[in-house]
Every structure is written in structure tokens, then in C-alpha cells.
Design brief:
56% of the residues lie in helices and 11% in strands. The radius of gyration is 34 Å and the shape is elongated. By secondary structure, it is α+β, with helices and mostly antiparallel strands. The protein starts with 6 loop residues before the first helix and ends in a 7-residue tail after the last helix. It has a domain of 176 residues: 3-Layer(aba) Sandwich (Glutaredoxin), CATH 3.40.30.
């Protein structure tokens, strides 16, 4: 038990510990901040390092669209396969009006899907001979048939290439030369260097800048985002809520007329029925 004589010693010890703790924190705070910043940078994706759409890209839709979806994908990835269906649905909804464009870039993961580089090269060989339309036709068929548990053979890829418009001899020669693999590796390296860890990865460019998201998104989530973005783009100046009344008041006026007419008809019918059912007196 502490006596009154021990209290000054106890206070001095506490003060000393506080001073030591503060000194340690103050001398190490800069290094802690530096390490935290460095970790944040390493975990972030630097989307500004990724190139915008160019004439060399495989583009689906309007190249001058206000919204461009640049998708880094893997033909052998099951999530990419599902996401490709979503993108195709988006194109059916927003493509005819020229609102969006989709760009395909390669991100084949050899460790997960050994056949992925072969698929990517096959798509480039078709595009080299047939062009952009041939690439997308081949991509659609390839995603439809791809199965991680049963990779396509070289002979099966030849059949798909011919269906997309390529000639057998040219396609086989392109696959054997492997020259177009450099394009695939360039796109793979650029997205990995930007900090992306998996596919599919989507970069969205619009009039207000760019943003990104990872993974296979649902049609509803992307469609709502597109709808909101397009509405924001069309706003020139803010309007008061009352400015929209003309768009719905007329509808409610019509409903009011129908309701009034219905009430009037009901009243007339009731009156007529009452007159008809009135008992008569005997003479």
C-alpha cells in the first residue's frame, strides 16, 4: 500500500512514461505515414496508366459513344463468360441508340487457364484476316463453347475460325507463327502493371472522366449506372421540381375525369333503381 511519501515517486514515474511514449510516437510518426502511404499505393489500381480506346482496339458499337467500356477479359474464364453475356445484353439495349461502345482487351491467366493464350491468339488471328466483325463473331462463339473442364482443341478452333470467316490455311499459319502474341502480352502487362489482380476488369470512360470495377457485374447494376450517367450527361442546368409537373398532371387529370364520370353514372343508376322499386298504392 502506498503511503503519502510514495506519491511523488509514483507521479514522477507516470510522467516519465508519458514523455517516453510521446517521444517514441513523435520520432516514428513520419515513417508510419510513409509506410501507410506506400501500402495504399500498392493496393490501389492506377487506372490513368491504362490507354484509352484507339483505332487498334476491337470495338463493338459506336466508337464515338459517350460511354466506352474497356474490358480486360479471358476467354477461358467462367466469370468472363457470364460477363460477356451481360455485355451483349447491354449492347442490345443501349447499342442501337449509339450510347455505349465495348472494347475487348486480353488478360489471359496461364496459371488458371493454360488454354487461355491459345484462345486469345486465335481471336487475333481471325481479326487479322477478317477484321473487327470477324473478331466479335469468333469471340461470341468461343465464349459460348469454352469450358475450363474441357478445353477446345486446335482442330475445333479452326472450325470456329472458319465460321467467323477466316480461311483454314491463313488461320493455321498465323497460329504457328505466334507473331500476334506480342499484342496479347502487351495488353496483359499493362493491366497487371496498373495493379489489377483478376479478370474480368472493366474501365469506363465517359465525358466526366473514368472509373473502374472488378469482377463480373450483373446486367441490372450496370444498366442502372448507364441510365444514371446518361441522364447526368444530358443536364444543362438544374430545374425546380415543379418544372416536371406537365409530364404527369395531365395523366392525373384524365384519371380524375374517369373517376368523376364513374361516380356520376353510379348516382344516376342508383336514382333510377330507387324509382323503379318504389311500391305503388292500391286504389
Amino acid at each position: 500500500m502506498f503511503t503519502r511519501s510514495h506519491k511523488p515517486i509514483l507521479v514522477a514515474v507516470v510522467i516519465s512514461l508519458c514523455v517516453v511514449g510521446f517521444t517514441y510516437w513523435y520520432t516514428h510518426r513520419d515513417s508510419n505515414i510513409e509506410n501507410t502511404s506506400k501500402d495504399d499505393v500498392e493496393n490501389n489500381i492506377i487506372i490513368d496508366d491504362l490507354p484509352r480506346m484507339s483505332a487498334d482496339d476491337h470495338v463493338l458499337g459506336n466508337p464515338s459513344a459517350p460511354m466506352v467500356f474497356i474490358v480486360y477479359s479471358d476467354f477461358a474464364c467462367p466469370y468472363c463468360k457470364e460477363y460477356h453475356k451481360t455485355l451483349r445484353t447491354l449492347m442490345k439495349v443501349f447499342g442501337p441508340s449509339g450510347k455505349i461502345a465495348i472494347v475487348f482487351r486480353h488478360m489471359p491467366f496461364v496459371q488458371l487457364h493454360p488454354e487461355a493464350p491459345m484462345y486469345a491468339l486465335a481471336s487475333e488471328c481471325v481479326a487479322e484476316e477478317v477484321g473487327n466483325s470477324g473478331f466479335w463473331k469468333f469471340a461470341d462463339e468461343l465464349f459460348t463453347l469454352s469450358d475450363p473442364l474441357k478445353p477446345l482443341t486446335a482442330a475445333e478452333l479452326v472450325v470456329l475460325a472458319e465460321k467467323a470467316g477466316a480461311t483454314r490455311q491463313t488461320f493455321v499459319a498465323c497460329m504457328r507463327s505466334n507473331e500476334l502474341m506480342a499484342r496479347i502480352e502487351q495488353q496483359f502487362n499493362e493491366v497487371i502493371d496498373a495493379g489489377v489482380k483478376g479478370s474480368p476488369f472493366t474501365l469506363v470512360d465517359d465525358e466526366h472522366g473514368r472509373y473502374s470495377y472488378e469482377g463480373a457485374q450483373t446486367f441490372r447494376s450496370i444498366a442502372e449506372s448507364i441510365q444514371t450517367t446518361l441522364r447526368i450527361m444530358s443536364i444543362d442546368e438544374l430545374e425546380a421540381p415543379s418544372a416536371s409537373q406537365n409530364s404527369f398532371v395531365a395523366d392525373f387529370d384524365a384519371l380524375s375525369e374517369v373517376a368523376t364520370s364513374s361516380v356520376s353514372t353510379t348516382a344516376t343508376t342508383t336514382s333510377t333503381s330507387s324509382t323503379t322499386l318504389k311500391p305503388t298504392t292500391q286504389p
